[in-house]
Amino acid sequence: MSCTRGPVAVLAVCVLLVAGSAGCGSGDAQGNGASPTPVGSLLEDRDKEGRPYRDVAQRKAPDVGIEVQPDAAGGWVVRLTVRNFRFSPPGAAARAVAGQGLAQLYVDGRLVARLRAPEHRLAGRLVPRGTHQVTARLYADDGTVWVVDGEPVESTADITASESGPEPTPSADARQQARTHATDNRHRTGGRGSPDRAGRAS
């Protein structure tokens, strides 16, 4: 009796071990299959709002470009161009899914909007007279900042507002997509600026 049950017991244990290991995986992977690959690693660095940086490999990292143009109503139209990224719908679960999330829009470093679509109208009252920087930065749905090599995935455009209304600077009129994360040295299609290592357009 004991001789025949021995192998069966061992086999049962092996099956349990295999099944248990199948249910285990990287802490960053999603169990429901929404994100089949790990979503980077958390860094100690944080943004000004205290949100942690989530570093991902450059090969399939999300990317964003920004274009800002004045509109007839005295405001600004902001258009984002994303790559390896999709906007999650309102009410999305607060978890990091590879290549997914939202964009936060800043004017001179001040948060003015959270975007779940590639286009947004920026009210003229948010851009007083003078030259300003409008920045779009990508975030995961858990609030972490998408970063590559420690640099946030973001893009900035310079705009100038006058007393009579918004006027595009030469860079904005040329639909310049400036200052992406410093690791991206590629020429962007549709824009005339090419980011250098410092992240500014040449």
Detail the topology: elements first, then pairings:
Elements (H helix, E strand, L loop, with lengths): L1 H21 L18 E6 L5 E4 L7 E8 L5 E8 L2 E2 L12 E8 L2 E6 L3 E4 L7 E10 L5 E4 L2 E2 L1 E9 L2 E3 L2 H4 L29
Parallel strand pairs: 2-10, 5-6
Antiparallel strand pairs: 1-2, 3-4, 4-8, 6-7, 6-9, 9-12, 10-11, 12-13
Q: Can you tell me about this structure?
A:
A hairpin with a 2-residue loop joins β12 and β13. The C terminus is likely disordered. It is elongated and about 50 Å long. The protein is mainly β and 202 residues long. Strands 5, 6, 7, 9, 12 and 13 form a six-stranded mixed beta sheet that branches. A four-stranded mixed beta sheet has the order 1-2-10-11, with no helix packed on it. A three-stranded antiparallel beta sheet has the order 3-4-8, with no helix packed on it. It contains two helices and 13 strands. It starts with a helix and ends in a 29-residue tail after the last helix.
